[in-house]
Protein backbone atom coordinates (compact mmCIF):
# COMPACT_ATOMS: atom_id res chain seq x y z
CA UNK A 1 0.00 0.00 0.00
CA UNK A 2 1.33 3.45 -0.91
CA UNK A 3 1.39 6.54 1.26
CA UNK A 4 -1.46 8.77 0.13
CA UNK A 5 -3.91 11.29 1.56
CA UNK A 6 -5.98 10.00 4.47
CA UNK A 7 -3.71 7.05 5.18
CA UNK A 8 -1.58 6.48 8.26
CA UNK A 9 2.14 6.11 7.64
CA UNK A 10 4.77 4.96 10.12
CA UNK A 11 8.33 6.09 9.48
CA UNK A 12 11.71 5.82 11.11
CA UNK A 13 13.70 9.01 10.59
CA UNK A 14 16.88 10.81 11.51
CA UNK A 15 16.87 14.59 11.12
CA UNK A 16 20.21 16.36 10.69
CA UNK A 17 21.24 19.95 10.02
CA UNK A 18 23.54 21.16 7.22
CA UNK A 19 26.60 20.18 9.29
CA UNK A 20 25.36 16.63 9.82
CA UNK A 21 24.46 17.10 13.50
CA UNK A 22 21.52 14.94 14.57
CA UNK A 23 18.65 17.20 15.63
CA UNK A 24 15.97 14.57 16.15
CA UNK A 25 15.44 10.88 15.65
CA UNK A 26 12.57 8.45 15.99
CA UNK A 27 13.12 5.89 18.74
CA UNK A 28 14.31 2.61 17.21
CA UNK A 29 11.34 0.65 18.52
CA UNK A 30 8.77 3.36 17.91
CA UNK A 31 8.40 4.83 14.42
CA UNK A 32 6.62 8.15 13.98
CA UNK A 33 3.00 7.54 12.98
CA UNK A 34 1.21 10.35 11.18
CA UNK A 35 -1.95 11.00 9.17
CA UNK A 36 -0.82 11.81 5.63
CA UNK A 37 -2.26 14.87 3.92
CA UNK A 38 -3.38 16.80 7.00
CA UNK A 39 -0.25 18.87 7.59
CA UNK A 40 0.84 16.81 10.59
CA UNK A 41 4.48 16.86 9.44
CA UNK A 42 6.41 19.54 7.56
CA UNK A 43 5.24 20.00 3.95
CA UNK A 44 8.54 19.15 2.25
CA UNK A 45 8.82 15.81 4.00
CA UNK A 46 5.16 14.98 3.44
CA UNK A 47 5.52 15.66 -0.31
CA UNK A 48 8.62 13.47 -0.53
CA UNK A 49 6.82 10.58 1.20
CA UNK A 50 3.76 10.68 -1.08
CA UNK A 51 3.56 7.42 -3.04
CA UNK A 52 6.19 5.59 -0.97
CA UNK A 53 5.45 2.21 0.62
CA UNK A 54 6.68 0.01 3.47
CA UNK A 55 10.35 -0.84 3.01
CA UNK A 56 11.19 2.27 0.99
CA UNK A 57 14.18 4.29 2.18
CA UNK A 58 14.92 7.83 1.10
CA UNK A 59 17.03 10.86 1.86
CA UNK A 60 15.17 14.16 1.72
CA UNK A 61 16.54 17.71 1.78
CA UNK A 62 13.87 20.18 2.86
CA UNK A 63 14.41 23.91 2.30
CA UNK A 64 13.17 26.37 4.96
CA UNK A 65 10.14 27.37 2.87
CA UNK A 66 8.91 23.74 3.00
CA UNK A 67 9.93 23.21 6.64
CA UNK A 68 9.64 25.74 9.47
CA UNK A 69 9.83 28.85 7.29
CA UNK A 70 12.46 31.49 6.74
CA UNK A 71 13.62 33.49 9.73
CA UNK A 72 11.52 36.58 10.37
CA UNK A 73 13.48 39.24 12.23
CA UNK A 74 10.21 40.98 13.14
CA UNK A 75 9.55 38.08 15.52
CA UNK A 76 12.53 39.09 17.67
CA UNK A 77 11.25 41.52 20.31
CA UNK A 78 12.35 43.08 23.58
CA UNK A 79 9.65 42.64 26.21
CA UNK A 80 9.50 44.44 29.54
CA UNK A 81 10.63 42.33 32.49
CA UNK A 82 7.11 42.81 33.93
CA UNK A 83 5.81 40.51 31.18
CA UNK A 84 7.44 37.64 33.09
CA UNK A 85 5.80 38.20 36.46
CA UNK A 86 5.58 35.01 38.46
CA UNK A 87 8.76 33.58 36.93
CA UNK A 88 11.50 33.54 39.55
CA UNK A 89 14.47 33.69 37.18
CA UNK A 90 14.30 34.35 33.44
CA UNK A 91 17.30 32.93 31.56
CA UNK A 92 18.43 32.62 27.94
CA UNK A 93 17.14 29.39 26.39
CA UNK A 94 13.88 29.32 28.36
CA UNK A 95 10.72 28.95 26.29
CA UNK A 96 7.27 30.37 26.93
CA UNK A 97 3.95 29.99 25.15
CA UNK A 98 2.27 33.23 24.19
CA UNK A 99 -0.73 34.31 22.17
CA UNK A 100 0.31 36.15 19.01
CA UNK A 101 -1.76 37.85 16.31
CA UNK A 102 -1.76 34.64 14.26
CA UNK A 103 -2.43 32.29 17.17
CA UNK A 104 -0.25 30.48 19.71
CA UNK A 105 3.44 31.26 19.59
CA UNK A 106 6.47 29.69 21.24
CA UNK A 107 8.89 32.36 22.44
CA UNK A 108 12.53 31.54 23.17
CA UNK A 109 14.46 33.87 25.48
CA UNK A 110 17.69 34.86 23.74
CA UNK A 111 18.92 37.58 26.11
CA UNK A 112 18.06 38.99 29.52
CA UNK A 113 19.13 42.57 30.14
CA UNK A 114 18.39 45.41 32.51
CA UNK A 115 16.07 47.07 29.98
CA UNK A 116 14.09 43.97 29.12
CA UNK A 117 14.00 40.40 27.88
CA UNK A 118 14.76 39.68 24.22
CA UNK A 119 12.63 36.86 22.84
CA UNK A 120 12.51 35.13 19.46
CA UNK A 121 9.16 33.95 18.11
CA UNK A 122 10.70 32.04 15.20
CA UNK A 123 10.61 28.26 15.34
CA UNK A 124 14.06 27.09 16.51
CA UNK A 125 14.60 25.43 13.10
CA UNK A 126 13.35 28.39 11.02
CA UNK A 127 15.75 29.33 8.24
CA UNK A 128 17.48 25.95 8.22
CA UNK A 129 17.65 23.41 5.43
CA UNK A 130 16.79 20.09 7.01
CA UNK A 131 18.08 16.66 6.01
CA UNK A 132 15.99 13.57 6.65
CA UNK A 133 17.06 9.96 6.35
CA UNK A 134 13.76 8.06 6.30
CA UNK A 135 12.62 4.47 6.15
CA UNK A 136 8.93 3.70 5.69
CA UNK A 137 7.92 1.08 8.24
CA UNK A 138 4.20 0.72 7.51
CA UNK A 139 1.24 2.21 5.65
CA UNK A 140 -2.39 1.49 6.49
CA UNK A 141 -5.85 2.82 5.83
CA UNK A 142 -6.99 5.34 8.44
CA UNK A 143 -9.93 4.53 10.67
CA UNK A 144 -13.13 6.53 10.26
CA UNK A 145 -12.33 8.46 13.45
CA UNK A 146 -8.81 9.26 12.20
CA UNK A 147 -10.22 10.52 8.90
CA UNK A 148 -12.74 12.72 10.72
CA UNK A 149 -10.13 14.17 13.09
CA UNK A 150 -7.24 14.33 10.60
CA UNK A 151 -4.82 12.71 13.01
CA UNK A 152 -3.66 9.31 14.22
CA UNK A 153 -5.43 7.87 17.23
CA UNK A 154 -3.27 6.72 20.15
CA UNK A 155 -2.47 3.02 20.10
Automatic annotation (TrEMBL):
Catalytic activity reads: [protein]-peptidylproline (omega=180) = [protein]-peptidylproline (omega=0)
List where in the cell it is found.
Answer: Cytoplasm
* GO cellular component assignments: cytoplasm
Task: Provide an example Pfam family for this protein.
Answer: FKBP_C
Biological process GO annotation list? protein refolding
Question: Which family does this protein fall into?
Answer: Belongs to the FKBP-type PPIase family.
Put simply, this protein is called: Peptidyl-prolyl cis-trans isomerase
